[in-house]
Design brief:
about 190 residues, single chain, 2 strands
């Protein structure tokens, strides 16, 4: 067993490497550019919604607050009439990336910590590189990616977009595994 406190270096190195790799994926490779589609006549939609001054948040249209309301004829008619929307409204600083990048780096550290903790419970100092690689990579991949499937299952996100994000998670798992195996205490 290796205590997680003894694994601060591989955790930090893994977080930095995942941060750099994710930046390359999202800023240079561009394969996530097709994750979202535009709407027909975007300008008309924006003009129709703008006067509503909807505050930032997550919304569903048509909305109902409970299962009983969902069963009413009125609500069912709204569903049939359409459109049915899941709407995320961002504030004016929507593309101010500083806060998101800080949160992502903290997430990378936490994910590396989880991978190191699980691997440290199973293996001791001086364990073979590949054993550390397999265990920490599996945990990191699961932590980065497995929950993304829920977005396609419940929120109808395109499976192609989820598949690309799951591939990213696999890459992040490999990077984390490499750092853990490389810097595992001897």
């Amino acid at each position: 067993m290796v205590p997680v406190t003894a694994l601060w270096l591989p955790i930090l190195v893994a977080a930095v490497l995942v941060f750099v790799v994710s930046s390359i994926i999202h800023m240079l490779l561009g394969y996530h550019n097709s994750d979202f589609d535009g709407v027909p006549d975007e300008d008309a939609l924006r003009a129709a919604i703008r006067p509503m001054d909807i505050p930032p948040g997550d919304y569903v249209v048509p909305h109902c607050s409970d299962g009983k309301t969902r069963q009413t004829e009125e609500f069912q008619a709204k569903m049939k009439e359409g459109p049915v929307l899941f709407l995320r409204v961002w504030g004016e600083n929507a593309f101010d990336m500083k806060s998101s990048l800080i949160q992502w780096f903290v997430y990378c550290i936490l994910t590396g910590t989880i991978a190191a903790y699980a691997t440290g419970i199973v293996y001791g100092p001086g364990t073979d590189y590949m054993a550390i690689f397999r265990m920490s990579g599996t945990v990191a991949f699961a932590a980065y990616g497995w929950g993304l499937l829920q977005n396609s299952i419940w929120m109808r996100k395109k499976w192609s977009a989820t598949g690309k994000s799951l591939f990213d998670s696999f890459v992040y798992g490999l990077v984390t595994a490499g750092a853990m195996g490389w810097l595992w205490p001897g």
